Amino acid sequence: MQLSDYDAFPTVLPIVVEDDLFFYPFMISPIFLSSQEDIDAASHAMENNSLLFVTSTREGREGEREFDAIYSYGVVGSIMRKVHISDGRVKILFQGLARGVITAAQSGSFPRGVVDIIQNEGYNQLKVDALMDILRDKIKQLSAVNSAFPADLLRTIEENDEPHRIADLVSSMLKLTKTKAYELYIENDIEKRLLALVDIIIEEIEAAKVQREIRNKVHSKIEQTNKEYFLKEQLKQIQKDLGVDTQREEEIAHFREKLESIKKYLREDAYNEIKKQ
Q: What is the model's pLDDT at position 83?
């Protein structure tokens, strides 16, 4: 489905609020609905062949559905499938279509509001192309030390020329807080958005390098400890095979040390007799 298949914007849409995930326009993703407000909003969209607006709660406001607890920017999309689960929840398969923003809230049995599509600002093609080249290069560096970017995603980023699409793809793969993800999402100046992503990825590269160095040091230490233990066990086995009782040798050496410490208190003939034992 495309936006052109629905009513013109701005338009009133039912709103589903997600507590844990942050969605992007290109996503096709399942959403599990547990609150009655979200279930009613999804049902309304299905019954009326309506689009759905999906947004997230602000950090620290999870579980709340008041308009001051949710972000005004989100994703306009359609419900591809809706299934009732035995535990009372509802699962929908949501297809994101475009970035949108709530311009006015409306009261009712479930969240709804006037939603408009965000139109991307114009940009300097040469500057943005250069920034995208830098971003792609940094992503390759990150993928060499971190498996967050699978090969198929790297190909998509390499082949796609739409900067906002690339920014969404990259953002979706980074471990960002909801607040940081939202700040990047609502930034309509694509140059600023790409620069911010480059900075984040540089930090990720440095962090990944440090983590790898620590893992290598820990691994080397474990290997050294295991090697020392193995060699000691080998030595014990060799001594055993040769009939050398290392424990008895240690006991005799300890006894002789004690004997020497009390030598001055013994008569010479007594000392010599004990030493023979």
A: 94
**Would you call 146 exposed, middle or buried from its count of C-beta atoms within 10 A (0-12, 13-18, 19+)?**
middle
Rounded to whole angstroms, the Cα distance separating 248 from 238 reads 16
Say which DSSP state 154 is in.
H
> Where do the domains of the chain lie, and which CATH numbers do they carry?
3-117 (2.30.130.40), 125-211 (1.20.58.1480), 246-276 (no CATH)
Spell out the residues 6+ positions from residue 140 whose beta carbon is closer than 8 angstroms to its own.
154
Q: What is the pLDDT of residues 49-97, one digit of tens each?
A: 899 999 999 988 888 888 889 999 999 999 999 999 999 899 999 999 9
Tokens of 139: 């992503």
How many residues appear in the chain?
A: 277
Rounded to the nearest 5 degrees, what angle is found at the Cα of 36, between the Cα atoms of 30 and 38?
Answer: 40
Q: Angle at CA 27, nearest 5°, toward 21 and 32?
A: 45
If we measure between CA atoms, which residue out of 143, 127, 109 comes closest to residue 40?
Answer: 109
**Which pTM was predicted?**
0.73
In 174-189, alpha helices (H): 178-186
DSSP state of 59: T
Kindly give the parts of the chain with pLDDT less than 50.
none
Cis-peptide, bond into residue 30, ω within 30° of zero: no
pLDDT at 213: 82
